[in-house]
Design brief:
The protein is of the alpha+beta class. The protein has one domain: Jelly Rolls. It is 24% helix and 35% strand. It contains four helices and 15 strands. The strands form three sheets. A seven-stranded antiparallel sheet has the order 1-11-7-15-5-4-2. A hairpin with a 6-residue loop joins strand 9 and strand 10. Helix 1 crosses helix 3. The longest helix is centred in the middle third of the chain and has 25 residues. The chain is globular and about 50 Å long. It starts with a helix and ends in a 5-residue tail after the last strand. The relative contact order is 0.24.
Length: 226
């Protein structure tokens, strides 16, 4: 992975696509996790909470080894971007190079619950625009990996981002993904250059309505939840 190019894309747009981060075998193994209740600490039916339609489940500790490895390695690659963003936005918090050290910070603040999750959508399901914050300590980037093949396993169900700049209407970005691709994106806000210098841009993400089939995705959030 050319992380300097990923960082440049994140700086420009607030998101970047990581092509074929996962193999077909990885995707199949992760999809199969859905059936094993012992792997999860909590399952959510979205329509019960007004989040959309579909289901997701938060993994319990210890995480499955492949997810733990991805969470650690992706954090290490993204921490320099996170620190650069906080400096540009004049936010005091900085992030250690090692993910375990950042989790220690979360746990000292009683953010103890793991946040990686598996999402399942069926025909007509969708995910409303939202942000995954969960507590005081927030790593400003997160990752979603698509585990199903568009146009074969499902139709519709595009990953969607919105960006709200000061005094402007929201901009919408639809991010095309194939099975095994991942998208890195801003959890809450990112720095953007304007006529008066750097300002903070609010971002939200969601999934458009499925037009048939089943769509699975893995979400990797780097901070734990209170």
């Amino acid at each position: 992975m050319k992380w300097d190019e990923v960082g440049a894309r994140l700086d420009a747009d607030g998101y970047a696509v990581l092509r074929l981060l996962l193999t077909a075998a990885d995707c199949a193994t992760l999809r199969d996790c859905w059936k094993d209740d012992a792997l999860f600490r909590k399952r959510i039916v979205m329509q019960r909470h007004g989040y959309g339609q579909g289901e997701y489940a938060y993994f319990a500790y210890p995480l499955p080894p492949r997810i733990a490895e991805l969470r650690s390695s992706l954090y290490a690659a993204l921490a320099p971007v996170a620190n650069r963003w906080h400096e540009a936005m004049r936010i005091d918090a900085r992030f250690p190079a090692d993910h375990a050290a950042f989790l220690e910070r979360c746990h000292r603040a009683d953010q103890l619950r793991p946040t990686p999750l598996l999402l399942k959508y069926g025909d007509g399901d969708y995910n409303r625009l939202h942000q995954d914050l969960y507590g005081e300590h927030v790593f400003p980037l997160q990752v979603t990996c698509l585990l199903s093949e568009p146009q074969i396993d499902f139709g519709g169900g595009e990953f969607v981002l919105t960006e709200q700049r000061p005094r402007l209407q929201s901009r919408v970005e639809v991010v095309p993904l194939s099975r095994g691709d991942a998208v890195v994106f801003a959890v809450n806000q990112r720095p953007a250059k304007g006529a008066r210098g750097v300002h903070r841009v609010k971002m939200r993400h969601g999934v458009s309505r499925l037009r048939g089939g089943e769509r699975y995705a893995l979400g990797i959030i780097f901070h734990d939840a209170a």
